Amino acid sequence: xxxxxxxxxxxxxxxxxxxxxxxxxxxxxxxxxxxxxxxxxxxxxxxxxxxxxxxxxxxxxxxxxxxxxxxxxxxxxxxxxxxxxxxxxxxxxxxxxxxxxxxxxxxxxxxxxxxxxxxxxxxxxxxxxxxxxxxxxxxxxxxxxxxxxxxxxxxxxxxxxxxxxxxxxxxxxxxxxxxxxxxxxxxxxxxxxxxxxxxxxxxxxxxxxxxxxxxxxxxxxxxxxxxxxxxxxxxxxxxxxxxxxxxxxxxxxxxxxxxxxxxxxxxxxxxxxxxxxxxxxxxxxxxxxxxxxxxxxxxxxxxxxxxxxxxxxxxxxxxxxxxxxxxxxxxxxxxxxxxxxxxxxxxxxxxxxxxxxxxxxxxxxxxxxxxxxxxxxxxxxxxxxxxxxxxxxxxxxxxxxxxxxxxxxxxxxxxxxxxxxxxxxxxxxxxxxxxxxxxxxxxxxxxxxxxxxxxxxxxxxxxxxxxxxxxxxxxxxxxxxx
Length: 482
Prior knowledge:
The chain contains 19 helices and 15 strands. By secondary structure, it is of the alpha/beta class. The protein folds into 2 domains: 2-250 and 466-481, Rossmann fold (3-Layer(aba) Sandwich); 273-461, Rossmann fold (3-Layer(aba) Sandwich). The strands form 2 sheets. The protein has a 9-stranded mixed β-sheet, sandwiched between helices. It has a 6-stranded parallel β-sheet with strand order 12-11-10-13-14-15, with helices on both faces. The longest helix is centred in the N-terminal third of the chain and has 26 residues, at 102-127. It is globular.
C-alpha cells in the first residue's frame, strides 16, 4: 500500500504548528506497519538543504494556463520516510517563510495542488512508485481530491483514492475563485458546494470531493458539525457523516521522552519521577530567576499566541492568581502582537513570581514541560492539541478546557484519591472559571500529594504513541482502496 501525504509543512523541515508534527510523525508510524508512506511538500527557502541532506532528484516542465513552469524536485529521507520537495519559480524556493501573506500564499498553494499530481506521475515514470491514496491536509492541499475526481475516468488515476484531514476548521482558503480562474482551474460543480456557495473555498472542496474526511480527534469530528465550531462548513460536513472519522493524533514517543531528552538536566521515567523530576523544576526556576522552592507550584505555558488558545482567559486569571497566591508562572510563545505584549507585560509586572519568553525556543519549551507542575492549555477550541500529551509524558498535570482533543485526552481529577484523572478540566469560557480551576489544582498540589502523584504516574504511563492511530488510518486507506 502506497500513501502520499501532501502538506504545506512538516517537522522538522518547516513547522508552524501541529500540522507539521502530524505529517512529520504519522508516515513514520505507517512505515513501521509496512505501509510505504511518503511526503510531498514545498521547498521553502528556510529549509536547511545541507543539514537535512537534501539532494536533487529530477526536473520536468509543467504546462499551465499562464505558461510553462520548470519544476525541480529534490528529496531527502528522514526517520526512514522519503520526502519530495517541490521547487518552482516564483512559487517555491526563495521564500524565507512558510506563509507570506494571503496574496502570495493563495497562488502558491493552488500551484502546489496542481503540481503534486504531476510529481506523482513523474515518480511513476522514473521510479515505478505511485500512490494508492493521496492523504491531503487542510486547505493548502484541498484541491487535490477535486483534481483526482476530474481524472477518475483515466485508467491509472481512477484507481487513486483520497482522504483529507482537517487540522483546524478555522482556516479554509475561502474566496479564491478569481485566482483559481486565472490559474486555469476548471469549475467545481459538486451540488453540496454549489447550493452553499462554497465552490471558491479549498477546504470545502477537499471535504466534498475526498473519499473520506478525518479530523484529529473524535470530539472535534462532532464539534465541527455544529455552527459554533463549523465556521460556516458544518452543513457540508454533515453531508459527509458516513465518511467522517475522528482519529486522535499521537506523539512521537521516541522524540518526546524524558528518559533521553538531551535538553533537560535530569532524566526520569514513571518509576523514578518522584526523586528525579524535581531537579528539572529547580533548574527551570534558576534559569528563570525565580526563587528555588519545591513547595511552590509552578504553572507552565507553551503556546502559539493566538485567540484560539484562550489567552484572553489565561492572562486575567494569572494576574489575579499572582497577585493573591504564592505560585510561580513561566510562559513561552509568540503570535499576534497584542498577545505578545500581554505575555511580556505579565512577566514585567510580577518579576519575583513570573518569567515570560516571547519567542519560539525548543530548549525552553522542553524545560517547561519537564519542570512545571501544572501545564496550562485553556483553549477556546482545540482540534487535538499535542502540548497536553507532551506535558503528561513529562509528568506535568494539564489544566485544560473541555473541548476537542483536550476532552479526548485529559481525564478530569475525581477530587478524591485520584482513582480517575490525569489533570484538571473546566468548561465555561470565562476567566473566573479558569481561575477557580487553577485554585482547585493548587489546593490538590498542597493538600493531596498522593493523589497528585498518582495522576502524574498515570499520565506518564498513558500510551500516546501513533500505533493505534496509524492502525486506524491503515484500515481507512484499505477501505478507500477497496
